Amino acid sequence: MRTYPVEEEEHIEKVIRACPLCYVGMADENGRPYVLPMNFGYEKGVVYLHSAQEGYSISILEKNSQVCITFCTDPGLVWQDEEVACSYRMRADSVICHGRVVFEEDYDEKVNALNIIMCQYSDREFSYSAPAVRNVKIWKVALDEVSAKEFGVSARNAFKYKDRSQF
Questions:
Q1: Which CATH entry fits the domain spanning 2-155: 3.40.50.2300, 2.30.110.10, 3.40.50.720, 1.10.3660.10?
Q2: Which among 38, 53, 40 has a CA at the least distance from the CA of 131?
Q3: Do β-strands 2-6 and 22-27 pair in parallel, antiparallel, or remain unpaired?
Q4: How far is CA 57 from CA 20, 64, 107, 143, 146, in A?
């Protein structure tokens, strides 16, 4: 089983769109890592996130706005030989991105970002109350670097494990 880099923009966007969550990594002033699972929206090379106005992540990002955002499709267990432990592997696609968080303060831009986030999860149109928009923190991350991989790609004789409740 192999890991292959992916460069096609369409494939990368397909992986991002398939994910219900992303994982946002940052480092505090002591270099200690902090990773959050977050809902997100994606449009034209920009990831949009939302949170409360205050908290540990906000205090980190005010000092160091660099983040790493990871997306991973739902993994599936595959193997080449059912009797050989080392032939077992998870099969999935991943996208890893780097960028800097900019907090969006403009009211109309915050509404636009909320709409982009909601498009990830629903085809419906939403409206937002003024207090809700004012009280949400919108993170805008223009992606500087993007890499993607397919991992656990099956060899010719690999099998997919069907019943995930077994592990």
A1: 2.30.110.10
A2: 53
A3: unpaired
A4: 20, 10, 22, 19, 22
Q: Which two tokens stand for residue 114?
A: 């909320």
From first to last of the 167 residues of the chain, give the pLDDT tens digit.
Answer: 455 556 678 888 999 999 999 999 999 999 999 999 999 999 999 999 999 999 999 999 999 999 999 999 888 888 778 888 887 887 888 899 999 999 999 999 999 999 999 999 999 999 999 999 999 999 999 999 998 887 666 544 434 433 333 33
**Longest Cα separation, the chain:** 60
Look up residue 4 and give its two tokens: 């292959």
